[in-house]
Amino acid sequence: MNLKLLLYFLFWELVSTSAVAQIETGRDLERYGLQKRSSDAKDKYYTFAINLFFRRSDGLRLDSPDFFHWSMHLNPGKDHKWKGIAFDISNAIEVQRPGEDTVFRNVDGKFYLQRKTDVSAIKSIQFATSVIIGYSVSKVSVNTIQDALSRVPVPQRCDGGNCVTWTIDAIRELQKRNILPKFDTGNLWDKVLQFGHARARYLDKMTPKARYKLSGREIGKFIPGQDVIVRALVSPPSGDPPGFARTGSRRSKGKRGKLRLIRRIWNSLCKRDASSCPQPRARTANEIAVRKMNYLAKTFGLAKTPQHKEMVLKAFKKFSEKIPLKRRSHSAGVGKVVNTASGAFIVAGFVFWGIAMKEVFDPESRSTVYDKVAVSTSLVPLVGCGAADARKIDMAVRGKGPKDDVALVFSVVDSALCYVVGVLYFTPLAPIAAAYTAVRLIIDTAMELWVPENADTAPGEVAEMRWQGWENVLQNISSTIMSDNYTSTLETIYLHEKLGILSVAANAAGNVEAEAQQQILNGTDDQQQAVEDEAENQGFVIAQEACNAIMRHRDNLRHTMMSFFGTKLHNAASKYDDELYETLRLKSKWPWESLKTPTLERLLQEQKDFPLVSAESSKQLSRNVSAWLDGILGKMEDPIPGCERLHEPNLYTPDGKCRDPCGPAARKTGTTREYAQTSEGQGIWGCVSIHQGQKLGAISPVCCEYEAFSLVGFGLAARLGGQFISQLQRDRNL
User: Fold this and answer.
1) How much is the pLDDT for 577?
2) Where in the sequence is the signal peptide annotated (predicted)?
């Protein structure tokens, strides 16, 4: 028994002695500055990738090199992981600069290098796709990588640089230091941009949840030797993305299917052989537009009461007068729009599509089947908004029908996509200026009310007095800017924008449906079905673009208001310190006295050591304003109420037999350009060649990559090569 106790005693002595030794060893290491090595200093193999994000800017064309924001992603190991370290440049109001624990307030809007640790790009609602560009040549530390990236010049506003050019320069710097393998970065730029466009179009047709699942397990991988990007399977991220609506949730309300602006046109009319309706009547575009506006107002929660409905219709009438989408006369309308109208009106041409359809379907005209099909599909962009041009019409396949009218359609009416987007940029935004002026007045008034006046303040009281006065300024700004008055003002601004966008959408849908009704009444059975399918398709395009426009305007309004508020808050802090200095300095002095009193010297030191904008109270006010905007406009990651039903799942299922739709097509033309498949409109897929963000050409694919589509030529041909451009139509059974 005693021996057993002795063994226990010796055992615990040994354990305690080892623990004390470890503690003392740690103290000695700490005493002599030998701390534990950080993870950034460890040499490891790293995987490098480029993450693409959608930018929150209006007016960017799909083929613009600025369409995506580029960010460099790296994670340890030789396989892709979603969580890692991100480097990019940013001119946002808040920038997380390397080596700084706090967020930097970028009030000047300059570009700065930004580092984010332990981030997962796919969790962002703006994430588009990712492309693996390679692996580190040998083991390297994050510190070494960060040092290399910090030496890459950050572009300035005037030199034309941006996040894309910086990323390319950063890759070249890593190659120069033998961190990344050598390859042509010029080809990489083109391939990443091309892959991003195609991927974005492909994923945009899915539900948010399906899009997230596919994006998480399938990305791009750049093959340097072949200069191509292939699809790569990666491990999906853990957990569901934040902010996506789920079936049956409060936000989605359990609804499924499309948000349809145009449907069942046949049901709203009577067939010509229907005995119960001997004289069918087609509604006018104005009648249909009013009905569409009532539907949209109800869907988007703008007509909750009869009073609201009446106000919406009055606003709709005013917007319709400001944006005349309908032709005034058959003879003068075409030339007037083409020659004298603004850019918004040039793309507003549904009526000319209707005129051309009426004439080419007229039995007395000598138009061929190619005329009929070309006009029926003229509202769908072929190779982007700028491709519907009269020069790309194959005159050889047409008869002696109304060539001028058909050519005019293709020179004026680019597509429903261009049409809606172009007009939406002209939505009146004058009330926003009033809101900015209100914020300016709030802060300027607060400065006059709360600057303390006490010239006899002792040096020891300066700090407390300065912070107390600044707290009063912030409280006054907070209580004023988030009052019911300014809340209702911002709500009115957002409502005004939304009404403008929905008014354009309603008018566009009214024009399309009115013309479609006429064609259904006058066409054959086959033509009736084709026109109805196309009209429903265009109604979906209009609804989708209206939702996208509302989201862009909402996010831009929120971002602009926060940026403006941050700038004014910074200016208020500077003005407050200046006013405080003037209050505390001596107004008169004896010849032997100095204007720099101990009180002023203490104030200057406080201003240098403790900037007001870095105070926790200032940051909290910014967070409160951001939350206030979220409550009015909705969070940026949330969908627009009413737009949750715009995606079609299971439509883009790959066809295993068609793995390379563009390669053989390019070889047939004998061109040296490289073509990649991308979506060029609603229901249209083609092969395009992109270089430095610009489209150089388009050809027909040889097969359809997705099972639900079939390859059908519709009579348009590219001048180069004379091939028919092909439409990949959706199977009607889906």
Assistant:
1) 76
2) 1-21
